[in-house]
Amino acid sequence: MSLFGTHLTILAGPGVPLPLPEMALNALDKLEVASVTRDPSALQIQFKAGRGATLAEVMDYPLMNLPGLMAGSRIIIVLTLGVLPNVLFDGLITQVQLNPGQGQGDGTLAVTALDIRQAMDREEVSTEYPGLPVAAIVPLVLAKYARYGVIPMIVPPVPTDIPLPIDRIVTQHETDLGFLNRLASENGCIFTMTPGPVPGTNTAYFGPQPRLGLPQSALTLNMGPDSNLVSINFQNNASDAHRVSGAVQDRATGTSVPVESVPPLTVPLATEPAILNPEVAGVRSYRPEGARTAAAALAEAQAASEASAQVLTAEGELDGSRYGKVLQPRQLVGVRGAGRAHSGFFFVEEVKHVIMRGEYKQQFKLSREGTGTTTPVVMP
User: Fold this and answer.
1) For residue 88, what are the CA distances in angstroms to 71, 256, 357?
2) What band does 162 get if pLDDT is binned at 50, 70 and 90?
3) d(CA 282, CA 289)
4) How confident is the model over 26-75, as pLDDT tens digits?
5) CB-neighbour burial class of residue 16 (10 A; exposed 0-12, middle 13-18, buried 19+)
6) Burial (Cβ within 10 Å: 0-12, 13-18, ≥19) of residue 271
7) Cα–Cα distance between 77 and 44 in angstroms, integer?
8) Distance in angstroms (rounded) separating the CA atoms of residues 328 and 79
């Protein structure tokens, strides 16, 4: 389906996803894709639903008979801007909702799907990983989902705790998604799934928040014809930032070891991080749950401190036709025209794509650790 310079492709089906028939594309009313970092991304498509003229179409709504729109089917959304295709979503349909309406042709069919992480959250697993560090456990778990084209991208956490089998064995008693999220939280990492780079594949990232690489095209305001933002609002919750301090009885040596978090180890995006401001930053006590080694305790304390440090957030909406690209979550983007305190680079936490006939908007949420740009110039 073409939308004023963009082309939308929907592949769906219980096995190999195939393009939806023209009848379904003509009935498409609205499509929303919410891409987030820590939770599964979500898709909702709304169709206009009516009965046709043939006997089979009078007996039931034609859209209800399409295998690609039934619960459990895999669905892939590809948006092409110019000649470059972008995979917006790859997941499984979890809910189908029909509103028949009161007259002929005024019904609606809403299809909801969650990304491939939905498949990782179906079954609880009880198993052990003796003698393996986190960076070796994650690919073992992800290998079970190779049929979804999962490509592992793993950056080992720092510091790394390698448990001795005679001392401690990493165990799993939850779903694979819950287990990977727990490992990420305990080690100051994120676990996320990004559709693509080509349709049918998904990139699974486990590691620290990625802050290296080329930033995306800038979000611009107050610059005349170069502006591409419809709106943007900043919020600085500086008092949420805190460091973590305490002590732990090292399980390996039996000695008491002090536990102190340090300033975030990630690449700084702000010159005035709230966690370094003693007038606003707080201190939380480290309270281990169960026996810990000193390395594991330090990793937990650092993870808790860094999670609290991202206090400056920006939420807004950009004009998709003026921006000319697809804003990607889990990457860096520059902001121009917001003043020295709020311009500069941000981490993209969430992006929501809203597509209707003749309209394409992208809503976003950004974050970083404080005010003050670290770069004198943000390139367009």
Assistant:
1) 20, 50, 17
2) low
3) 22
4) 999 999 999 987 788 999 999 988 776 665 566 678 888 899 999 999 99
5) exposed
6) middle
7) 11
8) 13
